[in-house]
Amino acid sequence: MEEILTLPSLRQLIDEANLKTKKKFGQNFLLDANITDKIARVAGPLNDRTVIEVGPGPGGLTRSLLLAGADRIIAIEKDPDCVSLLYSLVQAAKGKLTLRHQDALTLDYQALLAPQTKIIANLPYNVGTPLLLKWLPLASSIESMTLMFQKEVALRLCAQPNSKNYGRLSVITQFYTSSRILFDVPAQAFTPSPKVTSSIVQLNPHKHLPFTACPKALEHLLKVTFGQRRKMLRSSLKNFVDNAERLLENANIPPVARPEELSLEDFCRLATLYKEHHHP
Ligand code: SAM
């Protein structure tokens, strides 16, 4: 992949094409190869893997992924100006990089997921969470996800019970994966700089779910309970089941508990009973 090292710098490409960053596409580019190389490195081995990258932008992280040995990258970019800018990289990658000019939110990922697929991306902050929620149910077909989020979202993904960041997103993420923050990236590392710090999160799908529950029931339960975060469970559940107190007692959960006190295991146990007793 030496051809990549002979390409013009990202800054040069951007200047020559007079590319203007667009807020509506959540564009905060990483132009420093030290940072993109580090992201590629922490994503683990890339040879014999398919990598899905959402939002390659000018292609900094894409270059790092190719240099780190990625065998096949499918990069999905919505902005036509970035797609044009990436042409020289597609050529230099000699068949290893497939660029799709598409909205990543509307894609059928099931069809894209070859065995040993990793998703690695500096996500546009405005669609990061909806994208993750699309990927989580497919987690068993994904080897790992190494993703940049706003730090505030990263903290929610990895939060534990009894903390202010713990909520729906924490439980559903941890139902499917084990997640941890690997490192923070300061706002100044991006062009343009966002207002907030970002974090790289590693999400490793569980090979076998540690706790089982019907995902739809779990999601509904999370919506209903965290939707009224400060309420006791017996009160937030009362409109959805005939006898909320008894349901909670059967699940071995104090009816006066609040949702942030429940572990993933508690939620799964409750979701299983909830599914039986819930009246739609
Ligand atoms: N990967 C590049 C980097 O690290 O410098 C760019 C990251 S930038 C935070 C997010 C990228 O996602 C932008 O290039 C933006 O145009 C693209 N993007 C935004 N919304 C998108 C969507 N719905 N589908 C695909 N790409 C999108």
Question: Summary?
Answer:
The protein is α/β, with parallel strands linked by helices and 280 residues long. It folds into two domains: 2-205, 3-Layer(aba) Sandwich (Rossmann fold), CATH 3.40.50; 215-277, Orthogonal Bundle (Helicase, Ruva Protein, domain 3), CATH 1.10.8.100. The chain is 39% helix and 18% strand.
Describe the structure.
The chain is of the alpha/beta class and 280 residues long. The protein folds into two domains: 2-205, 3-Layer(aba) Sandwich (Rossmann fold); 215-277, rRNA adenine dimethylase, C-terminal domain (Helicase, Ruva Protein, domain 3, Orthogonal Bundle), CATH 1.10.8. It has helices at residues 2-5, 10-17, 33-42, 60-67, 80-85, 87-92, 109-112, 128-135, 151-158, 168-176, 215-226, 233-236, 244-250, 264-277; strands at 29-30, 50-54, 72-77, 97-101, 117-122, 144-150, 177-185, 190-191, 198-205. Strands 4-3-2-5-6-9-7 form a seven-stranded mixed sheet. Helix 3 packs across helix 4. The longest helix has 14 residues, at 264-277. The protein is elongated and about 70 Å long.
